[in-house]
Amino acid sequence: MSNLELRPAPHPCGGNGRTGPVRDVQPGKQVPLGESTVVRRLLPNLGRRMVGAWCFVDHYGPDDIASEPGMQVPPHPHMGLQTVSWLREGEVLHRDSLGSLQSVRPRELGLMTSGRAIAHSEESPPGHGPLLHGAQLWVALPGEHRDTAPAFEHHTDLPVITGGGGLSATVILGELDGTTSPGTTYSPLAGADLTLAAGTDARLPVDPDFEYAALTISGESEVDGVRLAPGALLYLGCGRSELPLRADSDSSLMLLGGEPFEEKIVMWWNFVGRSQEEIEEARADWTAGERFGQVKGYDGGPLPAPELPPVPLKARGRAR
Question: Where is the Pirin C-terminal domain (predicted)?
Answer without folding.
Answer: 192-291
